[in-house]
Structure formats: structure tokens, C-alpha cells
Specification:
The protein is of the alpha/beta class. It is 29% helix and 17% strand. It binds beta-D-glucopyranose.
Length: 749
């Protein structure tokens, strides 16, 4: 038996997250340039650098402000000719010739669109996330963009929140690894390279925990939870060298992030040593007025700059009020100077003073063949197989006719997902197109959508779709959500399939033909009923430009699904929040109790065992975090540890046998979970501490080695100190967060 050493790969991951280069070391020459410039600037010019405007489209109007030194950054200008014109005004016509920072939301691709970040997270593959971010940077920088507002690394445990689509899901470790990889991809080896763009981890911090899954809503995250769950991805991003951060819209325990010195100064600057730029979210500064945290715009400027904001996005209170506030002494000169240092430092690191211009004819990098190939690979790895009864997938050779049905089968705009400003639907390859072009010589394809778009409630086409589909050997139904149903301010109180999509699936089931349901959505949907009605379910999130070819290859068996859920799928909305890394109650549930209809009529007062569960939903989710099937099966055996006792300085070495017990070469995402049994504060029932993608041939068995340094078991304890507390621990190696056999070990003091 071959011994596969993945410890080095594991260590690489850990290195990426926890020990990588961190904030760029201070470059003395660069710092001297910053100081020289600063010493020549008037107060107004300094404050001008702290102002970010959104492009007016019209060069003349923007030029007036730029010449006066009133603009440090422009977002949303993507025409390279205009970018060059604006940079020329800044360099040649403003007094000090300071270049502009050109910014854009490049969230999961510029022109070539990758799966939404939640989909990318399902790949559990930081390399593909890094490659996607690199390509996004190459394409975006080709038109002059040097700053993206990404990655979004908000932990999201509520799928009602529309922005769950933009992040990496519910888990702190997975988000840390994927977020750090994206930062590396955007920024490349050095910010100075013309294809590097500054990353902006957002939204700092806690935005994903808004009450009720409503966007912009208040959060109540106590400091320990903040430090144990919500901050680590941002710290990992800082260690990966993230150049900027964006404050979030939410007020946490009463303090809006844009006015929160504890997070912006104490944590980000003092604890993590961050020396980059902090920008507000879009108007999040002035929104402190409706929050009831600032009385007027003057107070907005005062509170945000004193809290540690360097640049204000589009709400102009800095330019209006900081000159006066500084003269009044309410804002110290060194506060302004430090903010401007952070901005100039970034502009110098990006090499903008040497050359802020862009080749106006670089169009050929957009949608380059290699970019599309990587986007396809990302879409393949993002797909999660939830059900595959009777091995209906992959489609077998004897299938002669396939019916393609459903509103998402040929929805070039919608399969791109949320936050796509620049990708064009004309370049999208839909599943219908891909199946016809790639497999049309093997099967006859009949297409009858049944519904025009996901919210379509007109049921007239359903009968026709069912009659047509009944002629096929297998039905492929594409359902889900239009792109506009997730993303910012697109929260939902109900997570059922919208429109008449459930009716469509029920009608197709009645044909008696094998039914494969393919979902494309921005979030987990409560599809228990539709899963029951389907023979197989493939969940893709929104897969981007190359979703069609990826799905076609998965359905026809050229590729084998390997994605795993980056977020728990609830059975029903009432179970939310539901996430695997919860703390135990004093009365944990015993099993999956669903007792609603078992309780006798007029039962006497009964505690039903006094356990923590819902009478109507039990406790289990529809699918747990980490879940995902393959066309093959994997067996985990013989899990052993290098010792059953470790000190804090040790590394836990784990070995186990992984066997591909099925018929296809396939990749398994092996997951490593731990539990700290007893601590000074209660700890989650399980926490992901490592993962690895392992590819095995059919029938192949390998011994896999993984490692976790004991220091990774540290958490913020009762004294708000980050420590490893000695005691008993459990460890699982498994294919999802709910399976596997526990192995015990001890940490001794
Ligand atoms: C969003 C940010 C985004 C910004 C700029 C805001 O509404 O919350 O994530 O980067 O707009 O477009």
C-alpha cells in the first residue's frame, strides 16, 4: 500500500492562512517618499486623498475635482480610455501629481465569471480560488482597475441573507483558507506588478450575522464569539498581505463598524499590525445618522476618522467637514496624516506613481481561452451531488434521448449569479447549449422549459413540458433562483423554490421517467420535497460563464462530482440559524426526534425528555456542512494518531486508510474535525481544522497522513486570552461534519 503524505500540503494550507508573509515589511525608501509627499501637502489636499467618488462617467466634471486635489480614488470606471484620461489629469494637472486608485467590485470574475464565492467554497480547493482571483485581477487590471472590493469573508449562518452568495459560507476555518487564497490571487506575488490589484477583505466585521437574515441589520456578537468565529478569516487575510479593508454596515452591540475604534484600531492596527488602507462601505459613514450614532454629517466625519477610517466611499463628509474639524482641534493633524500615509503607501506599493496608465488595447486577455478553462474547472469542483438513487448519474450509454426542462437550463444571465457588473451573458455557456454541442452526437436533446424564469407562476407550459419530457429516457430539470434573488439587499423570508418550479418537478415526476434535478442558486434552498421527488440532485450554486460545459461533463460522467457543502442546508426556514459548529446545550437531543404527530391527543403535561429539538423538524438539517456525494464511494478506516497525549508545542500526526470502493476515479474532500471536550468556556461540538482533496482510482487504497499543530486548538478563553487549554479532545476524519468515528486524545499542560 502506498503512503501518501499530505502533511506537507496541509502545512502549506496552514502556512497560507496562519504564517504567510503578513503586512508588507516597511520599505524605508517607500516610507521616505510618503513623508516627502506628505510634507508638501496642504490640509485640503490631504483630505482630498481621503475621498472616494463613484465615476460620473463624464471626464470634465471629474477632472475639476481631481485638479483641485479633492479625489483620492474613483470607483466604477472601467473604460481604459477614460481611466487613462483621469490618471493624466491627476498626474499632470493636479499640484502634486498623485495618481488615482481606480476601484471596482470584481467579486467572482471581471469578464470571465467564476462560480459565486459560495460555490467556489464548495470546492474546498484554495488553489482554484486563487487561480480565479488571479485571472480576475489580470482581466480587471487590463482596463486600469487596481483595487477590488473582495474577497467577502463574512461568516454567514443564515441563508435568508442574500449576501451569503458572496462569501465562503458558515465556517471560520474554510473561510480563512479560501479568503487568504483569494487575497493572494488578486494581489499576485507583488502589488507592484501591473496585473496585481489590491484586495479588500470585507465587511469588517460581523455583517453576516444580521438579525433575522436581513441585510444591514444589527448584530449582537460578543467579543469572544467575534474573536473565535468572525475575526479569524480577516486575520488570515491580513497575514496573507491584504492591502485594504472595508468597514461593514452593521452596528454590533450598538456600535456601527464605521465608527468602531475597537475593531479598526485596537484589533486591525495594534493587534494585527495592518498598515494598509481602511475604506468605508458605500455611504456607511453617513448611515451612522439613521443608525442614531451620529447627529449630523459633521459628527459622521468626526466619528469615522477618529475611529480609524482612512477613506470615505461616496458620502463626502470628509471633504466637507474634516478641514474645519481639524482646525477646531477635534480631529488631530496626526490622525489625518496617518490616514493619508496609508493611502499614499498603497499607491506607491501598487507602482502607480511610476505608471498609472494602461494599454488601451489589451482586450485579448478578456475571456482568454485559459481563463474559460479555469472557470470551467472551478464550476466542476463547485458542484455538489446531493442525491443519486440507483446510480442514475452519470447518464449511461443506453440513454438515447434526454429531455432538458426548467427555467435555468438556458438562462445565460442568471447562471452568472449576483455581483456581476462586467461579465456579459453573450459569453455564457448554458447547460442546454453545452449538452447540445458536447453530447448532441450521443443523445437526442429535446428542450421544453416549462417555465420562462424561476419566478414564473404561469403554469400553462408545465403540462406541455411533462408531455414532451415523457418521450425521453431521462429528464434533466434545471431549477433554482435568478441571479437577482440573492446578493445585496436580496434577502428572503422563505427559501422554497420560487414560482411554479415545484409544480414543474411534481409534473415531471408523474411521467414516471428518471428525474435528475439540477439546482443553480445563490444560497441553500429548502428543497426537501423536490429532493424526494427526484432520483438525483446536483447543486451548483450559480456556476458562472462556464457552468454549462461543467454541468454537462458531470452529468455525462466525463467529470465526477467532488464538491462539499460549505454551509448547512436546513429542512425548513424555522431551523435557521442552523450550523454544525454550535455549542452543546445542557440537554442535547438524543436523535432526530420529530414527535409532533406521536403525542397523544390531550396528553398530560409532558417534557418529552426535556431535550433541545423542534417537535416538527427534529434537529438534523436536510444536509450537513461538508456533505457531498460522488459517483464512487469512499471508505475511511484505521484512523490512528501518533500519540494519545500532546503538549502545546507538539503536532498531532494522523494517519488513516482511504479507499475508493466504487467504480470511478474520483476526488474526496477529506475533512478533519476536533472537539475540545471541557474548557473554561463551552466549545463547539465540532470544528473543522483541516481538509484535503485526495484523488484515488477505482479500487485504490492509500494511507493518508494529515497534521494539526496543537497550537491550532487555541481559542479565546474565559479570560479573553487566546490559549490551548489542556484536557480531553475528540477528533474525526470524515467525508462530512456528521459522520466518522471519534478518536480521543489529551493535551497536557
Ligand atoms: C457593498 C459593498 C461594495 C460597495 C461598492 C456596497 O453597497 O456593500 O460590498 O463593495 O457597495 O460597490
Amino acid at each position: 500500500m502506498k503512503i501518501l503524505k499530505v502533511c506537507s500540503a496541509c502545512l502549506l494550507l496552514l502556512a497560507l492562512v496562519f504564517c504567510s508573509k503578513g503586512p508588507e515589511p516597511k520599505d524605508k525608501v517607500l516610507e521616505a517618499k510618503v513623508e516627502r509627499l506628505l510634507s508638501q501637502m496642504t490640509l485640503e489636499e490631504k483630505i482630498g486623498q481621503m475621498n472616494q467618488i463613484s465615476s460620473f462617467g463624464n471626464i470634465e466634471d471629474m477632472s475639476v475635482l481631481i485638479k483641485r486635489g479633492e479625489v483620492g480614488s474613483i470607483l466604477n470606471e472601467v473604460d481604459p480610455v477614460k481611466v487613462n484620461a483621469l490618471q493624466r489629469v491627476a498626474m499632470e494637472e493636479s499640484r502634486l501629481g498623485i495618481p488615482l486608485l481606480i476601484a471596482r467590485d470584481v467579486i467572482h470574475g471581471f469578464k470571465t465569471i467564476f462560480p459565486i464565492p459560495l460555490g467556489q467554497a464548495a470546492s474546498f480547493n484554495p488553489e482554484i480560488a486563487e487561480a480565479g482571483a488571479r485571472i480576475s485581477a489580470i482581466e480587471a487590471s487590463s482596463v486600469g482597475i487596481r483595487w477590488t472590493f473582495a474577497p467577502m469573508i463574512d461568516i454567514a449562518r443564515d441563508p435568508r441573507w442574500g449576501r451569503i452568495a458572496e462569501g465562503c459560507g458558515e465556517d471560520t476555518y474554510l473561510t480563512s483558507v479560501m479568503g487568504a487564497a483569494m487575497v493572494k490571487g488578486y494581489q499576485g506575488d507583488s502589488l507592484n506588478h501591473p496585473t496585481s490589484i489590491a484586495a479588500c477583505p470585507k465587511h469588517f466585521v460581523g455583517y453576516g450575522a444580521g438579525e433575522g437574515g436581513r441585510d444591514y441589520a444589527s448584530t449582537f456578537i460578543p467579543e469572544r464569539l467575534l474573536r473565535n468565529v468572525y475575526l479569524p478569516p480577516f486575520e488570515a487575510a491580513a497575514r496573507a498581505g491584504a492591502a485594504t479593508y472595508m468597514t461593514s454596515f452593521n452596528d454590533n452591540d450598538g456600535v456601527p463598524s464605521t465608527g468602531n475604534a475597537f475593531i479598526l484600531k485596537n484589533i486591525l492596527r495594534d493587534e494585527w499590525g495592518f498598515d494598509g488602507l481602511v475604506v468605508t462601505d458605500w455611504a456607511s459613514a453617513v448611515e451612522m445618522i439613521p443608525h442614531g450614532f451620529a447627529a449630523n454629517e459633521k459628527e459622521v466625519a468626526l466619528k469615522s476618522v477618529n475611529a480609524g477610517v482612512d477613506m470615505e466611499m461616496v458620502s463626502y463628509t470628509f471633504v466637507k467637514y474634516l478641514p474645519g474639524l481639524t482646525k477646531e482641534g477635534k480631529v488631530k493633524q496626526h490622525t489625518i496624516d496617518n490616514a493619508v500615509r496609508n493611502i499614499l503607501r498603497l499607491k506607491l506599493r501598487l507602482g502607480l506613481f511610476d505608471n498609472p496608465f494602461v494599454d488601451e488595447n489589451q482586450g485579448s486577455v478578456l475571456y482568454a481561452e485559459s481563463h474559460l478553462e479555469t472557470a470551467k474547472k472551478a464550476a466542476v469542483e463547485s458542484a455538489v451531488l446531493l442525491k443519486n438513487e440507483n446510480e442514475i448519474l452519470p447518464l449511461k450509454e443506453n440513454i438515447k434521448t434526454v429531455a432538458v426542462v426548467g427555467p435555468m437550463a438556458d438562462a445565460p444571465h442568471d447562471q452568472l449569479g449576483t455581483w456581476v457588473f462586467d461579465g456579459e451573458k453573450a459569453h455564457t455557456q448554458t447547460p442546454l447549449k453545452a449538452i447540445r454541442e458536447m453530447y448532441g452526437d450521443k443523445v437526442q436533446v429535446i428542450y421544453e422549459p416549462g417555465l420562462k424564469y424561476s419566478r414564473d407562476r404561469n403554469t400553462e407550459g408545465i403540462a406541455r413540458a411533462a408531455t414532451t419530457a415523457a418521450r425521453a429516457d431521462v429528464i434533466l430539470t434545471f431549477v433554482g433562483e435568478e441571479a437577482i434573488l440573492s446578493g445585496e439587499a436580496h434577502c428572503l423570508a422563505d427559501l422554497k423554490l420560487v414560482g411554479a418550479q415545484s409544480e414543474l418537478i411534481a409534473a415531471l415526476r408523474n411521467t414516471g421517467k428518471p428525474l435528475v434535478t439540477i439546482v443553480m442558486a445563490g444560497r441553500p434552498l429548502t428543497i426537501r420535497k423536490e429532493v424526494e421527488l427526484s432520483d438525483a440532485v446536483l447543486y451548483n450554486f450559480h456556476p458562472g460563464t462556464m457552468g454549462g460545459p461543467a454541468i454537462a461533463d458531470l452529468l455525462f460522467g466525463k467529470e465526477v462530482p467532488s464538491g462539499k457543502l460549505p454551509v448547512t442546508f436546513p429542512k425548513m426556514v424555522g431551523q435557521i440559524p442552523i450550523y454544525y459548529a454550535h455549542n452543546n446545550t445542557g440537554r442535547p437531543p438524543l436523535g432526530n426526534e420529530t414527535l409532533l404527530y406521536d403525542i397523544p391527543v390531550e396528553a398530560g403535561q409532558t417534557s418529552l425528555g426535556n431535550r433541545s429539538f423542534y417537535l416538527d423538524a427534529g434537529v438534523d438539517p436536510l444536509y450537513p456542512f461538508g456533505y457531498g456525494l460522488s459517483y464512487t464511494t469512499f471508505a475511511y478506516n484505521n484512523i490512528r494518531l501518533s500519540s494519545n497525549e500532546y503538549t502545546e508545542q507538539d503536532t498531532i500526526k494522523i494517519a488513516f486508510d482511504l479507499e475508493n470502493t466504487g467504480k470511478y476515479t474520483a476526488t474526496e474532500v477529506v475533512q478533519l474535525y476536533i472537539q475540545d471536550k471541557v474548557a473554561s468556556v463551552t466549545r463547539p461540538v465540532k470544528e473543522l481544522k483541516g481538509f484535503e482533496r485526495i484523488t484515488l482510482k477505482a479500487g485504490e487504497k492509500q494511507t493518508i497522513a494529515m497534521e494539526v499543530p496543537v497550537s491550532e486548538l487555541a481559542f479565546w478563553n474565559i479570560d479573553m486570552v487566546k490559549v490551548v487549554e489542556p484536557g480531553d479532545f475528540g477528533l474525526w476524519i470524515a467525508g462530512d461534519s456528521q459522520s466518522g468515528n471519534e478518536v480521543l486524545f489529551k493535551v497536557v499542560g
